[in-house]
Amino acid sequence: MRQLPNNSSYYVRKWVIKMASTMSAVLLLLTFVGFIYYIVKGGNLMIGFFVMAILWAVIGQIPADQVIQKVFAEPALNYGPTIIYIIFGSWFGRVLVDSGIAPAISEATNRVGKKRPLLAVLLVLIVTAFIFVSAYGVGSVIAIGVILLPIMLSVGLPRDIALSAFSMAIGAPMYLNVVLYNQIKAFFPKAQYGGTYLIFGVCAMLVQLVAVMLFIFWHRKKIDPSKADENLRVIGAETQQTADIQVPKLAFVVPIIPVLMNMLFKWDAIPALTLATLLAMLLTGKFKGYQKFVTFLNDTIKQAISDIAGLIMFLMALIMFSGAASMDAVRFRPLFEAVLPHNMLILALAFGVLAPLALFRGPFHVWGAGAATAAVLSGIGLFSDAFLLPLLYVPTLLAVSTDITQSWNVWGLDYMKVQTRDFLKHGVPIMWGVSIINELLVYCFFG
């Protein structure tokens, strides 16, 4: 009986600690909900992630010295190699556009002619996917979009259908795009771009591309050449003339060189991108004359870094929040263990069915509120990084392909004069089906 007070005191202390941990988890979830609301209302993501990093560090009761080192310093410093990948990828994309390779590929597509409008549109989608296997960024999308979108309109495709198809065709090759892959890899550092992932990436890309083509085929009867001039006039492209760009046909293979070098020879992305960039310059005559080469080199580098300057600072804020979320992950482990299915097939299907939660930077979008989801899932250690990366990548690419918070989609809506509801109405159902199929592929390859 003398031990009872001590035992009672022990259980009381244990209960208090448990309740404190539970309260912390509840507060963290409330800030998470507030963050989602902030994003939906159009808040600045960089500021939001930075504030969330501070809040989660404070609420999670992380010691001050660890906050400085583990939340702000180490994550940013360790992200340096990924920033280098992004810079080289952006430079390659800029060289593709400014050297004339990307516009030439687009113009070659237009030569199919108006006699076969459906075939012309399908070729435009294939070319779009081909280019964005390596090219990345809103600058590249705009540069290609002002060429390819008028081509689709010129054969009579309605503006809303053309924009949705174009955006989804950009999203399809993002499974293989090394720049975007290395951004999501920040959450899952043990995942590898190569081997099994590349096979999965090709399959997932083809699933999405085929779905986009079926979308066009379904709407083929809406192709009306008599409305082409009207649609072109609406977007201000009625007098637009594409220059006759002289580029060797051999240069058309340049966009897939980085992927091929990785698949065939296991090259790292940086030498692969560098080789492809130099070949692009060589094949388009940018080496003819030292001063011409230096000018082109400097201009493309400046523009490429300018294209991603905001992105880099956004990623710095994101990775700091990821650091805080990882340290707080232990508080969520009991909840996730109780809620998450441990069966990988059920989990993959659940993510596919719930994929639209990635819209509006929601909890399944890793460059939105889903950053917390990714950081927590990675931190609790229930599943491997190789499985988690594609698991979350699939719904994220639904958003990249159809979400109105994606920068190039915002540009497309303005350029094509398309209503938001029409853009979502066309894209979301298609990408929802694609997400379910691709999540099953995630299980097949990584489950």
UniProtKB/TrEMBL annotation:
Keywords: Membrane, Transmembrane, Transmembrane helix. It comes from the Bacteria. The keyword Cell cycle does not apply. The chain crosses the membrane at residues 20-40, 47-64, 76-97, 118-149, 161-181, 193-218, 269-287, 308-327, 339-360, 372-393, 426-446. This is Citrate Transporter.
